[in-house]
Amino acid sequence: MTQHSVQAAGRRPKRARKRDYNAVSPVWNTIFNIVIGLFAFSCVFPFLFVIIISLTDEQTLAMEGFRLFPSEFSFAAYEYIFQSGTELLHSFGLTLLVTVLGTLISLTLVTTYAYALSRRNFEFRGFFSFLAFFTMLFSGGMVPGYIVMTQFLHLQNTIWSLIFPLSLSAFSIIVMRTFYQTTIPDEIIESARIDGASEFRTFVKIVLPISLPGIATIGLFSSLGYWNDWFNALMYYNDPQSTVPLQYLLMKIEKNMDFLTQNAQHLGSFDAAASLPTETVRMAMVVLATLPIVMAYPFFQRYFVQGLTVGSVKG
């Protein structure tokens, strides 16, 4: 044994220091939290500002303009809207029912349609894919849709006239089909078939639980579409005694208010028109139309998690 090897053997091996590249220094962590917090506040601030304006006195708003801390608050805008009484509550209930029922129907149609398109062994896959994509570029038109809904289906002044036109979205079908193709491995479907599961059972027991993020995404899009829809009520509701959706009712209130303001000279009601909270009512309508659907976001957020299929297939 040489002298060099003896000296090398007598030395204690030094422990290699492992550098943690994933660790973030406290300074950078604080900076990141501040930046993200400012970005989140910039997203929430406009809605908070709208709430403040809706609670501002109309005369104060005309004199001081839009201010974050107005000198005088007032609930006149909300009092003017709630003058409709039970009609507003009925419209809110109708809109909630249409949103829930329409979203469930839309999810059922979209998920089944997209799953069929995602299967490579489906014989008519190309035809139905083209059919869904074609409707994104060209629609049947307003007049044919009105004739089908009123003359053939006889759904005028019914809740189904608010649900069926938005129940099947080609965009949601393509998004969900792509989600199936990129997220669900074919090995999972094949293993279920080997175990003797039918196509329907495979879809319900295996595909749907894995596809919750995609379902939550298109479910949120569908809920927003139903909640914000007013055009279908304008098209298919012509009975004055029928309960209309919330968005359409708020639009009618705004039109009535604008009519009184613009025709105050002919109606001889200058004082009444001057006392109408025009700007604050518009902001209050935004709050009433937006706040309920905002409350639905936390329920969908828990499903926005990716990588649910990681580790599902071994080998």
Automatic annotation (TrEMBL):
Subcellular locations according to the entry: Cell membrane
Protein's organism: Paenibacillus mangrovi
Keyword terms of this UniProt record: Cell membrane, Membrane, Transmembrane, Transmembrane helix, Transport
GO cellular component: plasma membrane
Topology in the lipid bilayer: Multi-pass membrane protein
GO BP annotation list: transmembrane transport
Protein name as annotated: Carbohydrate ABC transporter permease
Database matches in Pfam families: BPD_transp_1
Family: Belongs to the binding-protein-dependent transport system permease family.
Domain of life (superkingdom): Bacteria
Predominant location category: membrane
Keyword Methyltransferase among record annotations: no
Transmembrane portions of the chain: 21-53, 92-115, 127-147, 159-180, 206-227, 281-300
Domain ABC transmembrane type-1: 92-289
